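Memo to structure team: turn this sequence into C-alpha cells by end of day. - J.P.
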Amino acid sequence: MLGRPFGPLERNCMRNNGIIYEHIKLLREHTIISKKTRMNLSFFDEAYFDFISIFSGAEGWFGCEYIKFWDVDDLITLNLKYKISSYLPHIFLFGSDRCGNAFAINMENKNIIKLPFISFDLDFTEKTFGSFKEFTNLLENSEINSTFHYAINPDTFNKEIFEKHPIVLGGDPSDSNNKVLIDEEQHIDAVVFFNDVVQKVKSKGA
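Reply from structure team:
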C-alpha cells in the first residue's frame, strides 16, 4: 500500500483554486515557470502550467489515482533518458503512477494518456483524456473508495514498483515475487533495457 504524508512540506489536505487534494507530498511550496521552460514545453496548455506551478515534483493521491508529477525542470531530461521518442516520437512523459504506468501528453492532439512503461505502445493505452484540464477534473471528481486508506507509504515513497518479468513478455502481474521496489535511475535503466528487448522480440516476429 502506498502510507502517510511526511517531510517539511507534508500535507493532509491542500486547497488549490477551490479544489481539495488529499495525502500529497509537495516538493516545494511554489515553482516559478520560466519563459524558456514554457517555450520548450509549448505543447502543454495553460492549465498544465497553472497546476504544475504548485504540484511540480509532487507525489501522492490525486482523487483515487496515485501520481508522481515529475518536476517541470526535469521533464526534458527524463524523456531523453527513458528514450520515449525512439518508440513514440509524438508522446511526452510527465509523470508516473509508481506501479508501471506513465502519464503523458500526445503532442499532436494534446490528449493526456496513461500507458505502460513497458512497452511504450499506444495499443496498451489504459486511459485517454481530451485535455490536461479534463484530466485533473476527472481525477478530482473520481469516486473515492471509502474502505481504502488513501495515504503515502514512506517505505515505497519516491520508488517505482517494477515487475522483474514484464507482463508484455509473459510475466505474471499477480505474482508478488515478480515485483520489486527500485529507485528512479534503476527504473530508467530497466525500462530502456526491457523496451529494447520487446522491440527485438517484435522484430523477430514480424
